[in-house]
Amino acid sequence: MRLRSLCYTLLILLLASCSTTTVFIVRHAEKVDESDSTHLSQAGQVRAVVLADTLANRGIDSIFTTPYRRTRQTAQPLSQRLGLPIVSYPASPTSAIVQRLERIRGKEALVVGHSNTILDIAKGLGVTPTLSTIASGDFDNLFQVRIRRTPFGKSVLLTEKTYGHPTPP
């Protein structure tokens, strides 16, 4: 009887140590132009709604953005739709958000960053994107990083997609 109880306890502990976390990483949507890089353009506002449509049913429970207006505006439609707060993280160093994401277990998160940070965030989580840089006019990448933890180790899988091709109304 005692051995059975010990086996059940061990099994419960092993199962409790298993988790899958999914992190969606995107660059902020289109900005007005280089003279006003703080606000989203009409196309960027449409793309932000398309992002919300894309992720609305994915179980997102955490939304992280840098403190810049364009990243917050990109996440805002999803935040409003899901009733979730936007949590700010520093744009630099990327290790700050990576460490925060590494502590999350069994959750689904959106991270909105910048052309010079999103690839480093993905790499920091343990994957190697096929892109080496994000071009200045490239706003549609959607990186999905799935982190599966088991008692036997951790596996990390990257899925690279694009989302939406907005046109201004």
Automatic annotation (TrEMBL):
Quote the PROSITE patterns the UniProt record gives. PROKAR_LIPOPROTEIN
Highest lineage ranks of the organism? Bacteria, Pseudomonadati, Bacteroidota, Cytophagia, Cytophagales
Which InterPro entries does the annotation name? His_Pase_superF_clade-1, His_PPase_superfam
Instruction: Alphabetically list the UniProt keywords.
Output: Signal
Q: Which residues form the signal peptide?
A: 1-21
Organism expressing this protein natively: Spirosoma taeanense
Q: Does the keyword Nucleotidyltransferase apply?
A: no
Q: Which Pfam families match?
A: His_Phos_1
* Protein name from the UniProt record: Histidine phosphatase family protein
